[in-house]
Amino acid sequence: MQKKHIEIKPFTWLYAPLSLVSRCDADIHLFEDDRAVVIVSDREDNLGIGIRDGVMTISRTVMDKHGIRPEHLTWIETRTEAGEAIHEQVRFETDAAGQPAPVRTPVDAAAVQALIDRAG
Length: 120
Description:
Helix content is 22%, strand content 51%. Strands 1-2-3-4-5-6 form a six-stranded mixed beta sheet. The protein is an alpha+beta fold. The protein has one domain.
């Protein structure tokens, strides 16, 4: 069952390597069993780094702020390319150097909604 839905529009974050202030939209769905579904979307008015390049900074900020453990997190990115909505589920795996690395899998809008409905 869903415990809380938090909308942060815009969600402002700092991409430290380039000292760029960036913006995206974030929908955070927190559930009673400590799981979370987070959907971040690029904004047309963002003059900074996009969500694909900033995923590690954004996800760490959201997890730290809301006490979400990585193993309980379902992360979805939504952006527009050539006028088409693109949705990807992101898993955070460890690369050969032992660093966290995002691995993306395409999903459709219905699958995103199903994740929220099923969890709730």
